[in-house]
Amino acid sequence: MSTVYLKQIDILGFKSFADKTQMILSPGITAIVGPNGSGKSNIADALRWVLGEQSVRNLRGSKMEDVIFAGSELRKATNFCEVSITLDNTDHHLPVTFEEVTITRRAFRSGESEYWINRQPCRLKDIHELFMDTGLGREAYSIIGQGKIEEMLSTRPEDRRGPFEDAAGIVKFKHRRKEAERKLEETAANLVRVDDILAELEAQLGPLAEARRIAERYQALSDEIEEMEIALLVVEIDRLHERYVQLKNQVAREEAARNEAQARMRQGEEAWEARRQALAEATARLESLQQQYVEVVEARQKAEGSLALAEERLAALAQRAEDRRRRREELARDLAELDAAMEAVARAEAEAAAALGERQHLLADARQRADDARRFELADEIDRLSGELIDANHRAAMLRNEWKTLEEKLQAGATRHERFEEEAARIRAERDRIEAEKQARAERVEQTRRELEELERQLAALEAERERAAAEEAQAVSAWHRLQADVQGLSSRLELLRDLEAGYDGYAHGVRMVLQQARRGALKGVCGSVAELIRVDRTYELAVETALGGALQNVVVETEQDAMDAIRLLKARQGGRATFIPLDVVRSRRMEEGLVSRAAKEPGFLGLASDLVSFEERFRHAIEHLLGNVVIAQDLERASRIARTLNHRFRVVTLEGDVIAPGGLMTGGHVNRKGPGLLGRQREREDLEGKLKALEAERARLSARQKELRARVVELGRERDRLEAERAVRLGRLKQFDDEDRQSDFQLKTLTERMEALDWERETLAADRSQIERRQAEVRDLLAEAEAEVARITAAIADRRDRLAALESELAEAKERLTGLRIEVATLEQERENLAQRMSELRERKDRLERAYVEMRQEQARDDAEAARLAAVRESERAGALRLAEELDALEQALAAARQARQELEAEARELEDEVRRKRRIAEEQEAALQRALVAVERADADLSHALAKMGEQFGMTYEWAKERYPLQGTVAETERRLESLRRERASLGDVNLGAIEEHERLSERVRFLTEQRDDLVAAREQLEQLIDEIDHEMAERFMETFQQIRAEFGKAFHSLFQGGEADLVLTNPEDPLTTGIEVVAKPPGKKLQNLNLLSGGERALTAMALLFAILRVRPVPFCVLDEVEAALDEANVARFAHELRLLAADTQFIVITHRRGTMEEADALYGVTMPERGVSSLVSVRLSDEIDYETA
Fold first, then answer.
1. Number of CB atoms found within 10 A of residue 219's CB
2. CA distances from 652 to 405, 598, 657, 878 (A)
3. Residue 581, Cα to own-chain centre: how many angstroms?
4. Cβ-based neighbours of 99, under 8 Å, separated by 6 or more
5. Binding residue numbers for ATP
6. End-to-end CA distance of the chain, in Å?
7. Coiled coil: which residue ranges (predicted)?
8. CATH code (residue 1054)
9. How many Cβ atoms are within 10 Å of 47's Cβ, its own excluded?
10. How many domains does the chain divide into?
11. Does 161 lie in the same domain as 22?
12. What is the mean pLDDT of each run of 10 residues along the chain (1193 residues)?
């Protein structure tokens, strides 16, 4: 998929968009909505117009001026309009180097138009060529205007080719065909002119025929000599090629050995990496086990805490049961005492009742015996007083009984208060002890937390340091490998350069022999070549090489005799030729300082060549002899001014290698440097040696750093394990402290509740005591009054009795008896009532005690149930703690095994790392051997290339051509003898009129040139005709291939949109793909095959959409604009249309102008077009959540 997409549209003054309007677009589907007449379709027109549309009709206007804003009721018309589109071209799908391409078109009311590409003026043709065969452009299928979708079906079959040709990518071929036809016409006209000129020249060649015959004989001999020289050179090339092939085979063997060594090295590295991965997994396993260990420790501590808490609560329940038991015993004693008291009261009550019955019977008898008036009067008074006495005694008895009861209550309350005080003191002591323990534990918790925080900080810092060390180690390993590759590359290149220098590659044969013999000691006094003796900055390298030319290979010797010895050796061994510079005779040639000063004043003067190179002082005369009269200039223009300043007496060379020779001759042009020259090779070798030395040092540093980091990572891992173990211990302590705190809190809560109950009971007891004491005081006063009243009444009764005794002495005994009986009866009745009251009080108290006893039993039952539950919890936690202890033992063993496994893997990894280093050294040695073989191959290739170059430069032909046409006739010796004979024969011809030959050659050359021109024109005509045929063939193939693809996709798209049916594309003239029309055949579901004109509007629209979608599937375009193409569809078809758009949006950006909700719902972004001012459109961005309904607009 192409990533080209439309990023932005800028519109100013185009149709209804009077103000500057900008749309920011993204890949996917962008919907443009708005009421009818708001100007939505003007956006599609703007896009079509900026892409180069020239048809006013396609822009929905009558003249081009109609695209410029014509004004409104409130605005004036604008004088121009401008539209720009910006496309993302990061993948350079468009044939330009820009990552963003902005196309701008501007039109003025005067009729002028301007076009720009990325703010640079251009032609309309440039825009057409930019978008050619991209699916974009004025006639492409990327913009389907309002109501235009059906035109794909309405046009003639021949007119439907446009989208197919654009999709097939043959538009540019059509343009090339037109260009070829134009050139073909020009070629025919040129051919007629050349034939006329040739006829005239051929008439002039007749007089020069004889002179040409002699020249041709001479040329024939020369050609034969050349053929023999070529044949001999072919034999030499064959020999060199055989040597080259042998060396190539050696390279192949060395390369195979190198590959095998590298394969072993890679296997070792893979094994090392596998161990490192296993080590990482073992480390992860160890960390997991450590985490499990910490979790199990925490779980065990939690279980132990729960166990301790359960035991503590069981102990508390046991203590409460013991307290309750004591209270039950007290209640039982109280109940027993109450039962005894009640039993005594019942006996006393029965005795009082029996006595009362007896006294009442005696009283009745006494009343009968004492029955006279005075007796009755006194008796009544005595009875009255006796009644008062009885009442007084009754009150006194009641008060005494109440006093006794109050005293008993006070004594019981004092006992209970004493018991409550003892229990409260015990609770306070226990609570103080627990609070003290909590305070001490809080301090230990705080200390442990600080220790844990410090451990966490150390762990975080340690882990961060370990990660940094591991990352740095990985970076060091990666850097080491990169550095190793650089070292190998530089070493190979350096070895190649050294071999080239050692073999004096690039030197002439004679120079090479002299230098090699001097190295072997066969020649004395040889200092070296000029190239070896000087050093040049890279900036001046090309200039100095050009200035010296072949003199770079001049050999500097100590004396003239040394030079002659070297020349004699070359002659003796037929080793070629060389130029020598004897230091004892050579003289410096340096430009006068005055001239140098004049030249230095000119811009671009860089210096004398001899001053821009470095050398040993003893070679100064030799170097200044060669370079002392050469000026180095910045460029050719400045060199020309410097040469004029020096009156063209000296050579001036530019940094680019252009030369102005003495006398004004100029040499220049492009210098094709495929590699460094002799000077550059030497400089490059020295640079490489410095770089290699630095890289070797860096590699050693990285290797040491890698080992240091590996050891640091291992050390940090061990330290982390230690800290993790300490952290687990601290966490266990905190868990234990937390459990102890919860247990203490439970104990404190229990004690507090008990203390609150005691406080309430003590408050109740104190209130009861106060009330009892107040009642005692009241009873004391009332009892004194009652006793005084009893005494008074008793005295009155005694008085009455004395008076009665004087009156009835005889009846004294009876009266006294009667009175006594009455008193006894009253006393017994009062005593019986008191006993009944006492019995009632005793029953009430017994009921209270029995209820308290029942409540205690219920509380004890609940506590027993809680104790049973806690006992079960205790057993469960005890079993869990045992199980966790077993798990801890297993985890400790697993941790020990994991640590041992990690240590073994670390040892194995180190061994494998050492093995990898050894294999890497072997691979490097094999690589070096391969490089040496490659150097030998390159040297043989250089010799072979030199021979081949000689074939091309001296004879102007290739080796293959020469070998095929110039076979060696006979042996090499015979050929050499024949060559010498021919040379003598050619010499026997004497002087040859070379002027005649030259004239004849000139005319012949002219004729040949024109003939060649004619042949070229004929060939060009044939090539153009062939090109047209090839273009036609290519267009036909592309068209047919694309047509078949679109045809297949059309059927699928039609079936998808119609949910059935059939559709096809048929060529009207399959024999001529370049002109054939295209028929569209459609059969909707449930209908017969019928003419397209008989389909409904919706069916025609869906069919056209299917065709458009088929073309887009075969040839996606960067973006596609659809203007209300689904207007004629119902909701179901709109949904299918939108679904197809979503599928195509993966490859094509869609800008859809629509009214339909189904299309809007599928959009990734919405823009709304409104007309807040009559005649002026405005663009707003719409949120996808907004409710928009323009269907009724």
1. 16
2. 147, 14, 10, 105
3. 68
4. 88, 89, 90, 92
5. 35-42
6. 38
7. 170-358, 382-479, 678-943, 972-1037
8. 3.40.50.300
9. 23
10. 3
11. no
12. 79 91 91 88 89 83 87 86 92 82 92 89 85 66 70 72 76 75 76 67 58 65 79 81 80 82 79 77 75 72 70 71 70 69 68 64 59 60 69 71 74 77 82 85 85 83 79 73 70 66 71 85 89 88 86 90 90 84 89 87 91 91 90 91 88 91 82 60 74 79 77 77 77 77 77 75 76 79 80 79 66 57 61 65 69 72 76 77 78 78 77 78 79 75 73 71 77 81 71 57 70 76 79 82 86 87 86 85 78 74 85 86 85 88 88 89 90 86 50 34
**In this structure, is residue 1056 part of a structural domain?**
yes
Asked if 567 contacts 505 with a C-beta cutoff of 8 angstroms, the reply is: no
List the structure tokens of 668.
């220049």
Contacts of 270 by beta carbon, 8 Å cutoff, 6+ apart: none
Q: Are residues 15 and 148 in the same domain?
A: no
The single-letter code of the amino acid at 345 is V
List residues forming the annotated binding site: 35-42
Question: Which residues have C-beta within 8 Å of that of residue 359, sequence separation ≥ 6?
Answer: 821, 824, 825, 828
- Shared domain for 1165 and 1079, answered yes or no, is no
How far is Cα 47 from Cα 52, in angstroms, rounded to an integer?
A: 9
Q: Is 911:306 a contact under the CB 8 Å cutoff? A: no
**Greatest Cα pair distance in the chain:** 225
Secondary structure (3-state) at 1156: coil
- Decide if 147 is inside a domain: yes
One-letter amino acid for residue 528 of the chain: G
Q: For residues 937 and 933, give the distance between their C-alpha atoms in angstroms, rounded to a whole number.
A: 6
CATH code, domain carrying 660: 3.30.70.1620
Both structure tokens of 342: 């009640």
- Kindly state the DSSP code that residue 78 receives in the 8-state scheme: P
Indicate if 1036 and 1076 belong to the same structural domain. yes
Last-in-domain residue among 644, 665, 682: 682
Nearest residue to 846 (alpha-carbon basis) of 430, 347, 437, 334: 334
Total length of the chain:
1193
Final residue of a structural domain among 1056, 1088, 1116: 1116
- Contact call for residues 827 and 390 (beta carbons, < 8 A): yes
Residue 275's contacts (CB-CB under 8 Å, 6 or more residues apart) are 905, 908, 909, 912
Same domain, 13 and 98: yes
Nearest-angstrom CA–CA distance, 483 and 698: 8
pTM given for the model: 0.38
| Domain membership flag for residue 1187 | yes
Answer whether residue 482 is part of any domain.
no
Which range marks the domain in which residue 3 is found?
1-141+1126-1193
Q: Are 44 and 137 contained in the same domain?
A: yes
- Residue that has been written with the tokens 């009444």 in this structure: 793
CA 3 to chain centre: 21
Are 1021 and 1112 members of one domain? yes
What SS3 string covers 1081-1130?
Answer: EEECCCCCCECHHHCCHHHHHHHHHHHHHHHHHHCCCCEEEEECCCCCCC
Give the whole-angstrom CA distance, residue 525 versus residue 559.
Answer: 7
Report which secondary-structure segment, H or E, holds 343.
Answer: helix 209-369
What tokens appear for 695 in the block?
């890289």
